[in-house]
Amino acid sequence: MKKHGPVLTLLAVVLFMAGMFAVNMTKAKRVRSVNAAAYPAVSSSAPTQPVSTSASPTATARATASVTPTIASGFPAQVAYTGWTAGHEASIAIAVKANRGVAYLCDGTQVESWLRGKAEGGVVTLTGKSGDALTGRVRGDTVSGEISVRGRRLAFSAKVTAPPGGLYTATVAAAQARVTWIVRADGGQTGLQIRDGKGAPAPRLDPTNRLATVAGTTVQAAAVAGDFPPPG
Questions:
Q1: Nearest to residue 95, comparing CAs of 80, 115, 77, 114?
Q2: 138 C-beta neighbours (distance < 10 Å), count
Q3: Could you tell me the sign of the dihedral formed by the alpha carbons of 81, 207, 200, 219, in that order?
Q4: Starting at the edge strand that comes first in sequence, how are the strands of the sheet with 166-172 ordered?
Q5: CA separation for the pair 13, 138 (Å, rounded)
Q6: 127-132 contact pairs (CB < 8 A, 24+)
Q7: Domain region containing 146
Q8: Per the domain annotation, does 64 fall within a domain?
Q9: Count of CB atoms within 10 A of residue 227's CB?
Q10: pLDDT tens for residues 23-57?
Q11: By C-alpha distance, which of 192, 218, 224, 190 is closest to 96?
Q12: Residue (of 92, 166, 77) closest to 126 by Cα position
């Protein structure tokens, strides 16, 4: 028994130390757990904000303003309207550019009238030779009003017409001829050829290529804008 005494004593000491170590480890884990809950880890990188793929209202407004000009005239920056008088006595075209306007009326046989003037506040006020006059107001895509030609007053209505529709004119110097065409939105045409002071129906215009044959000569017509000077 005496021989085993020191061994048993040593074993008891080892077991006691192991027990104390286990107790200390348990306490350490509890402390770390409490610290982690009280002081969460802080990331060294900044939090990632979601990236919006849509432009802000301010940016959108600026972009819109940059591509949509504000026109004090009440009309688009440059536009053409084509149509008829109320009784289809004549066809009419109105071209507006900025605050200037030009109109042309013809019956396709011998009567025509060029008028020019201003466009402001959604109204075109144009005048021509011999007291001819036109007043029209824009409502949506239509200009309607009254035109006076050679003392005769006629109501009219004309709608926005995109190219190749619109108003075209060409001059043939060799033939001393001038030809003007109104090409409406439905593709219909009304035009007049003035030669030696006399009117006659205009030859057919190819509006896509702006080509026509006048007095045996192929000519290219020019589109008439609102600042176009009417023939003298």
A1: 80
A2: 24
A3: positive
A4: 198-201, 189-195, 177-183, 166-172, 222-223
A5: 108
A6: 128/230
A7: 78-223
A8: no
A9: 15
A10: 455 444 443 443 444 434 433 344 444 433 344 44
A11: 224
A12: 92
For the chain, what is the domain count? 1
Q: Is residue 112 part of a domain?
A: yes
Q: What is the largest CA-CA distance in the chain?
A: 152
Whole-number percent of the chain with pLDDT over 90: 62
pLDDT tens, 83-116? 999 999 999 999 999 999 999 999 999 999 999 9
Q: What is the pTM of this model?
A: 0.70
Domain containing residue 170: CATH number: 2.40.160
Assign 222 a pLDDT band (cuts: 50, 70, 90): very high
Q: What is the DSSP letter of 80?
A: E
- Of the candidates 102, 94, 191, the one whose C-alpha atom is nearest the C-alpha of residue 142 is 94
Whether 124 is in a domain gets the answer: yes
Q: Name the token pair of 196.
A: 């030696």
Q: Is residue 207 part of a domain?
A: yes
Query: Distance between CA atoms of 134 and 154, rounded to whole angstroms?
Result: 10
* pLDDT of the residue at 106: 97
